[in-house]
Amino acid sequence: MKKYERILVTGGTGMVGAALQRVIPNATFLSSLDCDLRDSKHTRLMMQEQKPDAVIHLAAKVGGIKANMDNLGDFYRENILINTNVLEASHINNVKKVVSLLSTCVYPDKVIYPLTEEQIHNGPPHRSNYAYAYAKRMLDIQSQAYREQYGCNFVTAVPNNLFGENDNYDLNDSHVIPAMMHKMHRAKQNKESVVLWGDGSPLREFTYSYDLAK
Question: How far apart are CA 56 and CA 58, in angstroms?
């Protein structure tokens, strides 16, 4: 992204956004307090004011497995609105490039390892977070559709599981590493045992957020 003078980062105060601030400090980092990306009018006005050459789209309604299972409709609706509005506003305002971050949950529940991009749409995602996963898949579809119809340089990237500073440590809404850290910390304070979800068989790959940002 070095050739772009005006870079806008949505979700700029989240975990990956905070890491990116260390890498491209001169970019504009947008938080949900700056603009409600679920609102198409607000999103278009923001894009007109910022006039970015490039957008790194990180903004999303996110959460761990429990939050996803408890809020399926919210996760689908809000992410569809955010993604649709950001890409459409970028298209209307002639943004030269948009890089949108997806999630490993876009992959089918039944998949062949190692994971490859060609497998993303080869079956339904895991039942626990299918609403969020399908919304993220549609971000990939919308990016592809805009490339083919309008010639927009809109692309997506799929990192593996992430962790790092500025993560969410709430026991109900967090992902696996911050949830485990919170549980271990609380257990040590209260001198109690720790109970982790699952049977220990799932395999995960983790990347530090700053390494992804670089």
Answer: 6
Q: Which two tokens stand for residue 72?
A: 């399926």
In the residue annotation, 132 being an active-site residue is answered as: yes
Catalytic residue chosen out of the listed positions 132, 134, 150, 169:
132
- pLDDT tens digits, one per residue of 129-167: 899 999 999 999 999 999 999 999 999 999 988 999 988
Distance CA 203, CA 201 (A): 6
pTM of structure: 0.89
C-beta separation of 61 from 16 below 8 A: no
